[in-house]
Amino acid sequence: MAWFKRKDKGIKTSTAEKKDAPDGLWFKTPNGNIIHTRELKNNAFVCPDDDFHVKIGSKEYFEILFDNNKFTELDPNMKSGDPLNFSDTKPYSSRIEETIKKTELNDAVRTAHGKMNGLEIVIACMDFNFIGGSMGSVVGEKIARAIDYSLKHKVPFLMISKSGGARMMEAGFSLMQMAKTSAKLALLDQAAVPYISLMTDPTTGGVTASYAMLGDFNIAEPEALIGFAGPRVIRETIGKDLPKGFQSSEFVLEHGFLDFIIDRRQLKSRLTTLLNLLNN
């Protein structure tokens, strides 16, 4: 039993005193590459071995884009109501409260203004962890108010989309946000204030059918899922197999719906270059 007690190895720590490594120190990509989370964060949450873009939220995008992570958040305390008294497996109001506690977010989008490489910019960024990044009344209202700020101050507007689509618990109230945000973006266009739409994984449903595809420049991260209906629904509807890579950002770019795909590590510098060109 010497091997079990590990005396021959010079190990004196008993099994009871053995401590496991803390969770969350390492990240494994779908390709099997392993990277320390600290290195991953320093690399804009992109694995350097295979360029896999880890899904991140508004906190991380704000850190990447705003100079020194300094920004002023717009309407931070706005929360969803329950206009329809909706209930499925649980009341919608309870679902909202639980999600707020779990994610420490008040809804599926955060909006803020600050500087990006010295340029003033307004950024709206969606969080998929909040009920699948679904678009409800609060999402539409916060985006509309962020656009109003851009209009008033003549500041470029960047929308970072990451969503499963409209929020079914708000039914028609959710679908109205498609028209509402699209109308606001039309005002931005009339005022010649630049609007850049960045689509990340995934961008689907009513978000794709409205503000995500209305940018002066529509851009995306590599291998992001972009589409309206899901592949299974489309396959069953048309009765045919879908092309390889269907609804990936590369496929969407090839078919003319994107202007370019951008690596997250180059996002800040590329956006700055683009806005400087527009300003000139």
Automatic annotation (TrEMBL):
Acetyl-CoA carboxylase is a heterohexamer composed of biotin carboxyl carrier protein (AccB), biotin carboxylase (AccC) and two subunits each of ACCase subunit alpha (AccA) and ACCase subunit beta (AccD). It is an enzyme of class 2 (transferase). SUPFAM superfamilies: ClpP/crotonase. The keyword Aminoacyl-tRNA synthetase does not apply. PROSITE patterns: COA_CT_NTER (PS50980). GO terms for molecular function: acetyl-CoA carboxylase activity; ATP binding; carboxyl- or carbamoyltransferase activity. Its EC number is 2.1.3.15. Pfam families: Carboxyl_trans. GO terms for biological process: fatty acid biosynthetic process; malonyl-CoA biosynthetic process. NCBIfam families: accD (TIGR00515). Pathway: Lipid metabolism; malonyl-CoA biosynthesis; malonyl-CoA from acetyl-CoA: step 1/1. The keyword Lipid biosynthesis applies. Component of the acetyl coenzyme A carboxylase (ACC) complex. Biotin carboxylase (BC) catalyzes the carboxylation of biotin on its carrier protein (BCCP) and then the CO(2) group is transferred by the transcarboxylase to acetyl-CoA to form malonyl-CoA. GO terms for cellular component: acetyl-CoA carboxylase complex. Belongs to the AccD/PCCB family. This is Acetyl-coenzyme A carboxylase carboxyl transferase subunit beta. Keywords: ATP-binding, Cytoplasm, Fatty acid biosynthesis, Fatty acid metabolism, Lipid biosynthesis, Lipid metabolism, Nucleotide-binding, Transferase. Residues 24-280 form the CoA carboxyltransferase N-terminal domain. It is found in: Cytoplasm. It catalyses: N(6)-carboxybiotinyl-L-lysyl-[protein] + acetyl-CoA = N(6)-biotinyl-L-lysyl-[protein] + malonyl-CoA.
